[in-house]
Amino acid sequence: MGALYVYGVGQSSKCGTVSVRGVAGGEVRTVEHGGLAALVTAVEGGPLAAAREVRSHWRVLEEACGGSTVLPVRFGTVMEDEQAVRELLLEPNAERLEHALRELEGRVQLSVKGDYNEEQLMRDVVKGSHAVAKLRERIRTLPGEAGYYDRIRLGELVAGEVGHRRAADTRIALEMLEPVATAVREEELRQPEAAFNLACLVDREQQDAFGREVARLGERLGDRIELRFVGPLPPYSFADVDLDAEAAAWA
Amino acid sequence: MGLITGLLTLPLAPVRGTVWLAERIQEQAENELYDESAIREALIELEEAREAGELSDEEIDDAENALLERLMAIRGFAGEEGNG
Amino acid sequence: MAIATAPRGGYLERPRPSGLADVIDVILDKGLVIDAYVRVSLVGIELLTIDARIVIASVDTYLRFAEAVNRLDIAHDDTTESLPELVESMTSGGASSKAKGAIEGVKDALTGGDDDDDDSGGRSRSRSRASSRSRSASSSSGSRSGSSSSGSRSRSRKKSS
Lengths: 251, 84, 161
Fold this sequence. Notes:
The complex is a heterotrimer. Chain A is α+β, with helices and mostly antiparallel strands. Chain A is built from 7 helices and 9 strands. In chain A, the strands form 2 sheets. In chain A, strands 1, 2, 3, 4 and 5 form a 5-stranded antiparallel beta sheet that branches. Chain A has a 4-stranded antiparallel beta sheet with strand order 7-8-6-9. In chain A, helix 4 packs across helix 5 (130-140), helix 5 (130-140) runs antiparallel to helix 6 and helix 6 (148-177) packs across helix 7. In chain A, 51% of the residues are buried. Chain C is an all-alpha fold. Chain C is extended and about 65 Å long. The chains are: A alpha+beta, B mainly alpha, C mainly alpha. At the B-C interface, helix 2, helix 3 and helix 4 of B face helix 1, strand 1 and helix 2 of C. Strand 5 of chain A pairs antiparallel with strand 1 of chain C.
């Protein structure tokens, strides 16, 4: 059938033979054009066990191309055949892809996430808002399942308060980290107790300074927020080359 | 939901991991919770179990697969089959 | 008085290698999007429409917050710190406009700036939340068992002010 699963795009000079296993246990090879190499694996027709292939996708991006920059492609992308990869992806976008790779070379993505100590957060919210405290009191005196809509209202008020705190804490984090990073992006928060989720593009030489700032950020936030500092990662969050119009300017 | 009910019948593992995990997934499915926290925590625990060698790779892979499928379903990660 | 301490926040200066839970979000949601592609399909999973999911997610979050504040064991006292003070201490010297924005938000909440209950209909069955809603892995101090290589938080001094 010729269908190819596409992991990402790197520089062909760096992406030689890829020895790591790919999706469905298949071989990873490259489709090349100019100086660009799309990392691909041939897949049979029909659905893949998508959840299992997340690990394969991840592994290939981490290990291919000898540690040089690979622009990750969105998980689950399968193109019709080699010709499609060359003519629809690489050729029309060669300049933008090369530009993006050049911009990303020598840089890594580091993830800084903050999660609230939930109990303390709730205490702070109750202390800080009379409306929340009052409604909470009223609900506690109601029997059993009564007050369902009151509880939703309470939760909504709390959510509002949490939102304010998130904004304030995110600003603190940005103030401290932006000066030592090339770019910082706020990513979507996926849990109620999340405070912030920052994707940071950092020069390899800046990593130490960045790390120190993360540690200082942790100190400043204290026990209210627990930091998770992860990386280096392929530049997933900075791979939004606009393939249809002008190149993305994330710097 | 074959995989999820399948998980519930896994033989009891020597550690709480598998049963605890199955209970979480079931709780999620039954309560129609769209909170990803439970999934995330379960993934972390699975990773630890993998490192600690407490469960077989296959059991961990199966459990992880079920979790990711659930997560993807939550995210509306749909497949559109078609010809590009 | 200068105090020599162990490396401040030393455990955070180096990032730890990613685990699946760390990267799953960026893998699923980020990366280059190519128009002319065929997505892998997920077999056997029923999917709600996007709108319904967002509505349900909101209600779940609100109920969860309500449960969380209700669980608190708060003694009745009048020495509550007001929000302006709290915000001040949080932003410690940061722009006053932040505090102002937060305070205005509170005013809205108190004066019921947003009156209607969002009871997003369609919730016909009453839900009894399992009280053992499992946060067991991350209990009060929010310590994540899977987190950084030096998993114990060894900071000894609290940031003052």
